[in-house]
Design goal:
four-stranded antiparallel beta sheet, about 170 residues, alpha+beta
Length: about 170
């Protein structure tokens, strides 16, 4: 009789499928630890991408100002001084409505400041709302910030040499 009871119990235990309460709690604790670590990291990635987007916008404004000087000022960067954003836009070198990626706020005004030797000094962007762009000092980006952005410059290839073999 005892052997029959033990066999019956073994048969019931073999048919049980599932997790114990302790196993489920252990999984929940592990998931909570992963979430505590991952959520701040994801938040930092989002903030950094917003800042990088604003710097890329400043780089686009700078590139448009360079094109404006080459096209309208015969490439004379030394006397360029400050180029207002409205001038760059009205001459068609930049869209009339540009916005900041971080806040989606339309940029109302701004300027690109060149030094006495024609080097970039700063790019200033002022959005319609009162919040300055991320990564800037009250809307002003230094030359180092703008020029060290990950936006690649377009390489100009001379059409007469593009199909020639290098020697």
């Amino acid at each position: 009789m005892l052997t029959q009871a033990l066999k019956a119990r073994k048969a019931r235990l073999a048919d049980e499928k599932g997790f114990t309460l302790i196993e489920l709690l252990a999984v929940i604790v592990i998931l909570a630890i992963i979430a505590v670590i991952a959520i701040p990291l994801i938040g930092n990635v989002i903030d950094n991408s917003k800042k990088d987007g604003d710097i890329a916008t400043a780089r686009q404004v700078y590139d448009a100002a360079r094109l404006y000087i080459v096209g309208e000022k015969d490439g004379n960067f030394t006397g360029a001084g400050s180029i207002p954003l409205s001038t760059i836009q009205s001459e068609g070198y930049l869209d009339t409505t540009i916005s900041l990626p971080s806040t989606k706020s339309i940029i109302e005004s701004g300027s690109v400041l060149f030094g006495s030797k024609g080097q970039l000094v700063s790019v200033t962007l002022k959005p319609k709302t009162g919040t300055p762009p991320k990564g800037s000092k009250n809307g002003e980006y230094s030359a180092d910030q703008v020029l060290s952005s990950d936006v690649k410059e377009t390489e100009v290839i001379d059409p007469g040499t593009e199909n020639q073999d290098p020697q």
